[in-house]
Amino acid sequence: DAGVIQSPRHEVTEMGQEVTLRCKPISGHDYLFWYRQTMMRGLELLIYFNNNVPIDDSGMPEDRFSAKMPNASFSTLKIQPSEPRDSAVYFCASSSTPGFVTEAFFGQGTRLTVV
Amino acid sequence: AQTVTQSQPEMSVQEAETVTLSCTYDTSESDYYLFWYKQPPSRQMILVIRQEAYKQQNATENRFSVNFQKAAKSFSLKISDSQLGDAAMYFCAYRSARETSGSRLTFGEGTQLTVNP
Fold first, then answer.
1. Tens-place pLDDT, residues A8-50
2. Please, are residues B1 and B42 in contact by the beta-carbon 8 Å criterion?
3. Could you tell me which of B102, B105, B32, B97 has the C-alpha nearest to residue A50?
4. Does A25 touch chain B (CB under 8 A)?
5. Which residues of A touch B50 (CB under 8 A)?
């Protein structure tokens, strides 16, 4: 398996524009997570899905953020409109059902810069 | 809610020497998992080692080992024979074993490890 795949690796956009980050989890994993990493706040969980259903989105900072998982192999995180304070590295991760000792596998992240 | 604390923002070690990174956590649960992740400059998050809370034996992976003290809620990482490639940010993470909590990971603030040649 190629691991968790995120795209794009880097994104530079202007304030007010819509940004869409994409993630393909590892096949067979039923949990998918979106994390944000910043110097100030470290690694924060934004939202996670189980079997394509959003379970907890309490970490989503504002209504400008939305995430979808239309099927088991694809998820998006959208920011509309984007703001400079959204600049961060966004990670997608996937894992298996609890009950198995399994870590979360991370993608390489998307570095978002909003100017 | 669980919290994870790494009190050492930065650590340094000489190549071939041993270094220990500290981590403490707070939880009311009895069954959980603990992890150390490594994040090199490439920013890829790489699992270093895992520990199941129900196991008394400390986990070991080659040059990496942990000192798990459940009563003290402490989970330190020891890196032996440090190599230049070990230089990275290290994150301690907690995961509940309860299915209702999913597989979410709660991370510490990270410790930046420098390895000096």
1. 999 999 999 999 999 999 998 889 999 999 988 899 999 999 9
2. no
3. B102
4. no
5. 101, 103
